[in-house]
Write a structure and sequence with these properties.
With 638 residues, this protein is an alpha/beta fold. Helix content is 41%, strand content 15%. It contains 25 helices and 19 strands. The strands form four sheets. Strands 9-8-10-11-13-12-17 form a seven-stranded mixed β-sheet, sandwiched between helices. Strands 2-3-4-6-5 form a five-stranded parallel β-sheet, with helices on both faces. Strands 14-16-15-18-19 form a five-stranded mixed β-sheet, with helices on both faces. β18, α23 and β19 form a beta-alpha-beta unit. The protein is globular and about 80 Å long.
């Protein structure tokens, strides 16, 4: 599709060359481009649609890339990518070696900071502004923060620090998309905003303060009274008193879809000194009716029909339920049996399968917002008082609460259950979202039980086991559909630290954890057809490891292959090697199949697994190589 203005824009400098009157049309074209492009590839849509005018106005006023724009998460930044030389790459969005779905420093000089987790823009922007002043450089720093992320603990820590530097020039844009803190927008607030953001207001205020200060003795008292009168008035008509008290000059709320007003305000704010917070109100999904009507659904979408908004999904409806749904249903079932069971999420009820739980058990459901550390510490407090909290969270997001896991849960041996969704490779979300570190970062903590199911029924039974266990438990399961097994009724308790032998053979042994058990079984079946006999063990627990089973296998079979969808360093394979050494077994050849020591970029999950050697054909080739070149000494074979 040809665009009158958008086709002329490859860089923000070309945007700035346009007359300001053209910007509403540019916004219309950019919005149409985003809907058209994402409908063909899938991706995060609603947030970027809501930030179209904001994006254009910032790049129109600020001298990017010399001036730094720091985004909070990347969901808002598709429009930013489109006008910074990457519009022709949108057909490759979130595909291997294609355009990343989040800002990425090595992708463009306009991406000033890599972001995948919320709450980082304020700290990063503050750091940039501090570095600028230390080096006596000249550029503006603008941090764009979503309304949900402003309450994040890291954001609050940054605000506290920013406000303590009254001479630091930095602008914070609070992009309030009416999904959280959304004060009304009307004629009065628009009028007050024009006054507050206008240079005349600030210049007049400064002159009056200077005049009052010049009056001996009385001046300070009068200034103090005037300041309190101003704050009282602003407290009646704006929600910015909190930010003012923290030391930021607050302006807003502002209509985030009036691009001409945004440009005028940015021009004025750009000349002001000190830390400034600009409160901009936008609408998630703006300009595309299906996304406006259902912003949660269109936050992240698969391919869809642009005209109707209908998602294009595979025709077959017989796919197994996702692990997330199996977990959510099991938790509901267990909550009916256990009155002290509590479900906790950090702003991801749909993604973690807790939405229905929250509807059925509202008194035992807590959504803490984007505050993972708080979620874990709160769960520890609940556990102290006899509740059984289940913290359902993505593996990658639990990393943000590591201190609380160690000090507040495990040190006190509290019965908190961590349900880690998206364990392993997650596909198109890429480096910032891969859940490939949890087995390593959890295994090293005393008192923690770490387990991973190989199928849906094992997930149910492991959740039941975790509920029955009197101590911290991490239950880690993958993204996507289950293995297709019929769901069993009821629950069975699994002995903690107990694995099981699924197949027996003498030439090699697969020791697998989680979804890699299925890969091991597939590889075993194909090897068996070639007359190569092996053992398959579903180890179930990374900690405590079933050393009895391991030693029994290792004394009989001298070629061992561990399989995990986790980084090799410190993970399941490392646990096996440590246990063999501990038990004095040194005559085995051991190969650990795991994620290599690199960040895995975005792409289809199967492609990612193939790149890491985690699919059955690659495992088969490895086993044949090991059997042909068997070494007598213990070690990891390359």
């Amino acid at each position: 599709m040809a665009y009158e203005y958008l086709d002329q824009i490859q860089t923000p400098a070309q945007l700035r060359a346009l007359p300001v009157e053209a910007l509403p049309k540019v916004a219309q074209e950019l919005r149409d481009f985003l809907v058209t492009s994402v409908s063909e590839t899938g991706g995060h849509l609603g947030s970027s649609l809501g930030a179209v005018e904001l994006t254009l106005a910032m790049h129109y006023v600020y001298d990017t890339p010399n001036d730094r724009i720091v985004w909070d998460v990347g969901h808002q930044a598709y429009g930013h990518k489109a006008i910074t030389g990457r519009r022709d790459k949108f057909p490759t969005l979130r595909q291997f070696e294609g355009l990343c779905g989040f800002p990425k420093r090595n992708e463009s000089e306009y991406d000033t900071f890599a972001v995948g987790h919320a709450g980082t823009a304020l700290s990063a922007g503050f750091g940039m502004a501090m570095a600028r002043d230390m080096q006596k450089k000249k550029f503006h720093v603008v941090s764009v923060v979503g309304d949900a992320a402003i309450s994040n603990g890291l954001s609050m820590e940054a605000l506290n620090n920013i406000g303590d530097h009254p001479n630091l020039n930095m602008t914070v844009i609070l992009n309030d998309n009416e999904m959280s803190i959304s004060p009304s927008v009307g004629a009065m607030t628009s009028y007050l905003n024009k006054i507050l953001a206008g240079k005349s207001y600030n210049e007049t205020k400064n002159r009056v303060e200077h005049f009052i200060n010049s009056i001996p003795t009385v001046g300070k008292q009068m200034l103090h009274m005037a300041h309190h009168a101003e704050e009282a008035l602003k407290g009646f008509v704006t929600p910015g008193t909190l930010f003012e008290e923290l030391g930021l000059c607050y302006y807003g709320p502002i209509d985030g879809h009036n691009i001409l007003t945004l440009v005028e305000i940015f021009k004025r704010v750009k000349e002001l000194k000190g830390p400034i917070l600009l409160h901009v109100v936008t609408k998630k999904g703006k300009g595309y009716a299906p996304a406006e009507q259902n912003p949660e659904k269109y936050h992240g979408v698969t391919i869809f029909d642009k005209e109707t908004g209908k998602l294009v999904t595979p025709a077959a409806s017989s796919a197994p339920p996702a692990y997330t749904k199996v977990f959510g249903d099991a938790l509901i079932e267990l909550a009916g049996m256990k009155s002290n069971l509590v479900g906790i999420t950090a702003a991801m009820p749909g993604g973690t399968g807790l939405s229905q739980f929250g509807q059925l058990f509202p008194d035992r459901y807590v959504d803490v917002g984007i505050a993972e550390g708080h979620a874990v510490c709160m769960a520890a407090g609940m556990a102290c008082e006899g509740m059984k909290p289940v913290v359902a969270i993505y593996s990658t997001f639990l990393q943000r609460a590591y201190d609380q896991i160690i000090h507040d849960v495990c040190l006190q041996k509290l019965p908190v259950i961590f349900a880690l969704d998206r364990g392993g490779l997650v596909g198109e979300d890429g480096e910032t979202h891969q859940g490939v570190y949890d087995l390593s970062y959890l295994r090293c903590i005393p008192n923690m039980v770490v387990m991973a199911p190989s199928n849906e029924n094992e997930l149910r039974n492991m959740l039941f086991t975790a509920v029955e266990h009197n101590g911290p438990v991490a239950l880690r399961y993958p993204r996507g559909n289950g293995e297709g097994l019929p769901l069993e009724k009821g629950f069975k308790k699994i002995e903690v630290g107990k694995g099981e032998i699924l197949e027996e053979g003498s030439q090699y042994a697969f020791l697998a954890i989680g979804r890699m058990v299925g890969v091991a079984q597939t590889a075993h079946g194909l090897l068996k057809k070639e007359g190569i006999q092996g053992t398959v063990a579903n180890m179930r627990f990374v900690k405590p490891l079933d050393e009895k089973l391991l030693v029994s296998v290792a004394r009989k079979i001298k070629v061992l292959v561990t399989l995990e969808e986790n980084v090799g360093m410190g993970g399941f394979g490392s646990a096996v090697l440590e246990a063999l050494q501990k038990n004095g077994i040194s005559d085995c050849v051991v190969k650990s199949i795991a994620i290599p020591d690199v960040f895995i970029e975005h792409g289809k999950p199967q492609l990612q697994r193939e790149m890491c050697g985690l699919e059955a054909p690659q495992v088969i080739g490895l086993v044949k190589k090991l059997l042909q070149n068997r070494e007598p000494a213990l070690g990891v074979v390359s």
